[in-house]
Fold:
Amino acid sequence: MGFPILSLLVLLPLVGVLFIVLIRGSEETVKRNARHTALFTSLFVLGVSLMLLFEFDISDAGFQFVEHKTWMPTLGLTYSLGVDGISLFFVMLAAFLTPVCILASWSSIEHRVREYMIAFLILETFMIGTFLALDTFLFYVFFEGVLIPMFLIIGVWGGPRRVYAAFKLFLYTLLGSVLMLVALLTLYFQVGTSSIPELIANPVARDLQMWLWLACFASFAVKMPMWPFHTWLPDAHVEAPTAGSVILAGVLLKMGGYGFLRFSIPMFPEATEYFMPFVFWLSIIAIIYTSLVALVQEDMKKLIAYSSVAHMGFVTLGLFTMTTQGLQGGVFQMISHGLISAALFLCVGVVYDRLHTREMSKYGGIVKNMPRYATIFMILMLASVGLPGTSGFVGEFLSLLGAFQVDILVAAFATTGVVLGAAYMLVLYRRVVFGPVKNKEAAAMSDVNKRELLMLVPIVLMVIALGIAPNFILDRTGPALEKLQSHYQYHIGTDMGDYNNE
Amino acid sequence: MEYLAVFSPLFAFLVVGLLGKSLGDKASQFITCAAVIIAAISSVMLFNDVILHADPRLIMVASWINVGDFVVNWSLRIDQLTVVMMCVITVVSSCVHVYSVGYMSHDDAKARFMAYLSLFTFAMLMLVTSDNLLQLFFGWEGVGVASYLLIGFWNHKESANSASIKAFIVNRIGDFGLALGIMAIFMVFGTVNFTEIFGSVQAHTDDVITFLGNDFHALTVIGMLLFIGAMGKSAQLGLHTWLPDAMEGPTPVSALIHAATMVTAGVFLVARFSPLYEFAPDALIVIAVVGASTAFVAATIGMTQFDIKRVIAYSTMSQLGYMFFALGVSAYGAAMFHLMTHAFFKGLLFLGAGSVIHAMSNEQDMRKMGGLWKKIPVTYTLMWIGGLALAGIPLFAGYYSKDMILEAAYADHTWFGDFAFWAGISAAFMTAFYTWRLMIMTFHGKSRAPIEVQKKVHESPSVMIFPLVVLAIGAIFSGVVFYGGFVGTYGGEFPDQHSQEVVAHAASVQDEHGAIPWDRHAFWGDSILVLPENDTVAAAHHVPDWVKKLPLVMGLSGIVLAYVFYLLFPALPRFFTFIFMPFHALFFRKWFFDEIYDAVFVRPARCIGKIFWKTGDKGLIDGLGPDGLSGLSRRIGGLLGKMQSGYIYHYAFVMVVSVIGLLSWVFIRAGGII
Structure:
């Protein structure tokens, strides 16, 4: 075993937390030092994660940089970490978005800065841990642990209805996770191990798979969120501070999709096949239903939150096609959405910081004073709509391409989301940025400053770069997903032959 | 050279788009104009290589998406069809770029405008040079975005914003079809690359696509889906409502995007897929019928409108209808011929109308014009040239291409060919009528403009007139010059043996410069496929005399009637409007498409959205879910009387109960261990 780079990634943020706890001095000093320490720590994590990206072996479909330590020998639990093509970019996403979030909170969070920064760094540990864990119970600890700092971020630093939103989030996710815990326990007692690779290699009997699939589905579908478990998301987004929304949309939602890829599909392949149509129809409902709901929203954050549900519909659709294109498209769509929706929430944050309202009708005609903002927002809006040349297109199109090979009707329904998506995003942009000036204060807002450019421009560049050269990600996710696909096909007994030549 | 032709507009867009502010207006205008003119020169040079020396080429630029069997590259496919499009795009675009320097001289966002024009030109070039459907889709959506940005260029105007959103969304409905078409092609062919698709069409002629338990002929389904995309972009009946509204954009935009280039992308798409459509005859029938109906309906609306730009917009829609029914009867060469001549004369008419609007202090209503011919004689003369070309008068470009289309439709000898022929003939009459109605209302009679506007009427500066002259040259000569290449046969006679032999023959008789002669087979090479039994262009040379003369007769009588109506007896129009009230209302209100769509799609979508939100999310899901649960727990709490009143305890209670319940269930199932 070489250098424990994965443990370093998981534990580094906690070291930052330790430093922040130790800060002493006047209130101002504490605030300033807490911000700087948090930013520095998260940038350090980003650096380490970049090292991971470059050290990652493209040709290897299995887990890399594996670390294995006994944790609770009496129970046979282990502390076991590893990264493969599926988890690699989720780790990257978490490592990238955390410093962005800290920058986004630089001046908008004024009270309890120390606690806020601690919450974010702990959140980072849990997020990265979730994607790296190779032991079911370790995974569970991280997966659930995420909820605590998120709950606090919304509940303490959120908007006026933050308590309602925080509890709704808590209730939904906890209910789901309780069911998942039951499933993980059952697996442990049935198979006798908590190691994820071993559980994948030894699927349980078909009948039991059905129940366990449903239990896990409850948890992941809430996280995703899939229709009809989505209503916590708009409330959580609306009440969360900007950075909370960014991390929620950017990383937390992806834990659901990751769960499907790591647990539901490989551990319960036969159940996956059985429930495939069920997931398809939920995805289609999510795409059409939430797009229509997004069309009538007045609150900018709510609109983007609903659009997230629709975009996640493309993800579940793609993943459960179990075709090469669908799987790759689903994963790509998650990464792309992680960037685009995060940046869109940042864009809302930019104007919210200036005018303190999210009502679209309070804005209008701001393009004149904020041309740079208008340009950035325009590119992101078009990326969200799935314009070819941006990352949004690649994921969406590949998912649909996968779906078309499995069920044309499903693909046709899902494709209507492309039309509806354009409608609500263009209307949002028009009402906020274009049109006559309705509100003098809105028209007088200043353009994005350097700090805001520093958060937004890298994301915009990545969105375009990944749209023009998506192979950077696809080449790395490919082998692991192909392995997953052949594993699935082996277990459900279909031929290893290619779907596409049918 | 290929790179120069395609990427110099992109370069100009990036430079001016990012640095426009610091470069200043003059430099921005210079960079964009220079880049597009370079692209135009390169395109003409490519025309020489690719067509005159029969040397099509395929260049791979970079890898794009690579997922399993789905392999797509960024590439440049420069064949005969592409090169024709490239020349049309870059030449018209250059004219519009230069014209815009004058037209937008009073606007304060000149750099942004020029950057958008260059972006559009680049996207359009990507569309036509693509060797696969995905890059074509990239260009397709790219021109859509550029069009959206340019229609809404004056973004403080609510009407401009509505129009730009409408254009984008209606086009997206077309893209819905195109996207599904791409997926269907991938399913059937296992690839989205043109070379591979066209090479294997014959192996898939009997394939079926199963949908809802029924088997459909795969190629027909694909053809229909691609055509839906073409309908959106090319404003064919049903998906046309965005085009007239798009006139909200500055006039150079209307000329470039909504007349000469972008709206012809659908025609290009179908022509590009001629190797597939030739084996999907049912799809061709649909194209012919939709095209012919569009030509007719748009012409009826064009006769009744008063906004000078809208008249020309409906005229564009009608002419696009001609191109489509030409495609529908397999006369791809004729459709491309009309595409090119139309680009010249319609670009000319639009820019001329822009010159009029410019002179009239931004007035667009023809009822407030009149008597302008003495004040702006150059514009007047140029508009005459455009009008004669549009009306199909001999020696002007439109005559050759439109006649060719009508003759090909007649020569098809099918029910839809006849339908297209008669729809086209009546549209030809209406075209001439509304064109001269426009000319007379704008330029003749007494001026109906307010005095202060009349005083300011002035001829446009030479930077605006020069591009008009270039387009006018095209509108006069492009028909005569290119007739032989686009639709003619070497030596003028139609040989009895067909296709391969003729191509081989034509290619073999190269003249002393190595150039091949003016023959449509040699001109198009392998870029267009027409099955011998469908070759209506060949048959069109042998139609009866009356078929050849009828379009001209209709055109002339339309012009005469316009003179009678609007110059000799100005009371007549009102009289006829009164007599044919219902028809006039139908035409004037544009056959009520907008009203119907609003009632059937737009309002219900918002209404359903509201219902889903209020009743679905807030009522049902939250009511039964979290809110209901907390209500339930509160009631249980009340019953037990021992619970605290705080929120969290209620939830915790529910949690604990469910956890215990589920755990016990699992352990019981697992056999009671532990």
Q: What stands out?
A: Residues 158-189 of chain B form the longest helix (32 residues).
